[in-house]
Amino acid sequence: MSRPPDLVIDDLASPRFGPAAIELRAAMTEMAPALSLSPDALKGAASEQTGLSDFGDRWFEEPLDVLCTALNEEAELCPAGVVSIWSQLVQLLKNRLLVEDAVRRHPEVLDVPISAPIVILGLPRTGTTHLHNLMSADPELRSLAYWESLEPVLAEGPADPDPRVARTAQGLEMVDTFMPEFKRMHEMTVDHAHEEIQLLAVAGSTMLFETMAPMPSWRDWYKATDQTPAYDYLRRILQVLSWQRGTGKRWVLKSPQHLEQMPVLRAVFPDATFVVTHRDPVAVTASLLMMMTYSLRMVRDEIDVPAVGRYWSDRAQELLGACLRDRDVLPGERSIDVPFHEFMADDVATVRRIYEVAGQPFTPDVLAAMDAFMAGHPRGRHGRVVYSFDQFGLDEGELRQAFRRYLERFEVETETIG
After folding, report:
1. What distance in Å separates the CA atoms of residue 329 and residue 331, rounded to the nearest whole number?
2. Are 2 and 380 within 8 A, CB to CB?
3. Per-residue DSSP letters for 284-353?
4. Taking a C-beta distance cutoff of 8 angstroms, is the pair 40, 190 a contact?
5. Residues 100, 153: contact at Cβ < 8 Å?
6. Vertex 395, ends 389 and 396: CA angle to 5°?
7. What pLDDT digit, counting tens, does each position of 274-313 carry?
8. What is residue 118's three-state secondary structure?
9. Which residues contact 273 (CB under 8 A, 6 or more apart)?
């Protein structure tokens, strides 16, 4: 298979857009003055659009207030960004109303067990997406489809075809219009296995909000606050999803934010198996900085690239620092560390080892399903983005020193940046 040539993105600071994106941004700019990123306005819009008013446990109101303040004071949103984020937050609040409505109408939902999930923890670019997709190909495991993560409960009730699929496709077309090279960094499709970061956003608290734009006050609140209520609500949404589709299946979960929530994960999912992925953190950080900086063009006209670089470099260090601090909290008999170079050398053998730890059968049918997935989704088919630390005003040697303790603890191979 021929792949597109490597690409250097040269408009990180001042994004350039094609005609379709320019037209769409102009329309969004006209809409922005009528929208308010305030808790009352967002909740009001969600209630008006659903006809529902019960948001459930009020714990989510504090993080929503902190988030709205940060969006208005720190995120530096352009008018199109206001529209984009307003739409996302209203949808999240609609999702919450619909989850609570489902539980109210069907209280038996809360009796659905979420037994022994397999949880993948690792920074982006450490193989978590490929691993998650491979395991999600197993028909005996339950994963979260992207369309399902955006709208866990269908307001209209069961429908064939499900309109959420078409709405998700439309949203991805918009993303591709604004960010045509994003698929080189992280391919998004309607039905790919997605991480539960969207469900944690419905719960009211998640690192997903940081990916909208760097917001120090949100980050500080999030890090200083016990996230058990958010993870308890994640479990509640998983019960609703299992009740709707796939009751009895074992969940496979994945998110980078879990790296700094290991004690909470252990408390909320005490019988889980944990898979911790590891890769050269310097190479991972470089890739992360490019992805986060490029995605900011969705919400900003101009981007301070070095400032974004510092923010996400610090967050990568904090996440891996938390991994160092808490790794031994995870039960030794139900956890496994996965070095990236070993996974890339033989991904199926790695999955076999994970299944052994998890007590999950690895049958010929499972192998065939994984082989079929890989045949249909060749890695790197959209080409690579070339980058360097110079673009972000950071020094590779200083970063490697900052990650020294992590490198001493976990077995990773040093990689070339670019």
Report:
1. 6
2. no
3. HHHHHHHHHHHHGGGT-SS--HHHHHHHHHHHHHHHHHHHHHHGGGS-GGGEEEEEHHHHHH-HHHHHHH
4. no
5. no
6. 75
7. 999 999 999 999 999 999 999 999 999 999 999 999 999 9
8. strand
9. 116, 117, 118, 119, 334, 335, 336, 354, 357, 358, 359
Q: Is residue 417 part of a domain?
A: no
Query: Position of tokens 């997935």?
Result: 373
Q: Which CATH number characterizes residue 91's domain?
A: 3.40.50.300
Residues 6+ apart with CB under 8 A from 345: none
Domain that holds residue 22: 7-109+116-409
Type of residue at 1:
M
Do 410 and 280 touch, CB atoms closer than 8 A?
no
Contact 145, 151 (CB under 8 A): no
In a domain, 228, yes or no: yes
- Asked whether residue 250 is assigned to any structural domain, the reply reads yes
- What is this structure's pTM? 0.96
Distance CA 287, CA 385 (A): 9
**Cα dist from 143 to 68, 241, 276, 293, whole Å:** 31, 10, 18, 29
Peptide bond into 161 cis (omega under 30): yes
Question: What is the number of domains present in the chain?
Answer: 1
Q: What DSSP string runs through 209-223?
A: HHHHS--HHHHHHHH
Model confidence pLDDT, tens digit, residues 333-384? 999 999 999 999 999 999 999 999 999 999 999 999 999 999 988 776 778 8
Q: How far apart are CA 188 and CA 382, in angstroms?
A: 12
Q: Is residue 416 one of the residues assigned to a domain?
A: no
Q: How far apart are CA 346 and CA 414, in angstroms?
A: 18
| Residue 229 β-bridge partners | none
DSSP 238-293: HHHHHHHS-TTPEEEEE-GGGGG-HHHHHHHSTT-EEEEEE--HHHHHHHHHHHHH
User: How far apart, in whole angstroms, are the C-alpha atoms of residue 180 and residue 177?
Assistant: 6
Two tokens, residue 51? 């006809």
